[in-house]
Amino acid sequence: MKAEDKKVNCWVVEKANIVDFKINYKGVLKRTKRMIAFDKNIDVRSVSVNQTMKELMYSKNDMKDLKGLIDNVFFKDVDANASVKDLVKITTVGNLVSRIYSKYIPEENIR
């Protein structure tokens, strides 16, 4: 493969300038799917809420590593704080979305 043929996808989420920015469930779903697609280098359209994390080739260590992506990249603007203990127990993409929305993002940043 030639160097000019390489394709790199990069997602950057910056803190919103809106003082009272809040995220809803649909926003968490979109970001979670993008995060998984970024992490596993797959097309975001191939990530489904019904898929298991094993189907997406996530090991326990991979699940632990999601903390950095959740806290520092994809949900930084809403001050997410993921728990490694919880992450290793999550079985599906839908469970991950629900956990991020209900447990990892502070209530004041939820719409």
Task: Please outline what is shown here.
Helix content is 42%, strand content 0%. By secondary structure, the chain is an all-alpha fold.
Order of SSEs, N→C? HHHH
| 3D shape | globular
Please report which band the strand proportion falls in: under 5%, 5-15%, 15-25%, 25-35%, 35-45% or over 45%.
under 5%
**Amino- and carboxy-terminal Cα gap:** 46 Å
Quickly give the structural class: mainly alpha
Mean pLDDT score: 89
Q: Provide the low-confidence segments as ranges.
A: none
What oligomeric state do these chains adopt? single chain
Explain what you see.
By secondary structure, the protein is mainly alpha-helical. The chain is 42% helix and 0% strand. The chain has four helices and no strands. The protein has helices at 25-40, 60-74, 84-87, 93-104. Helix 1 packs across helix 2 (60-74).
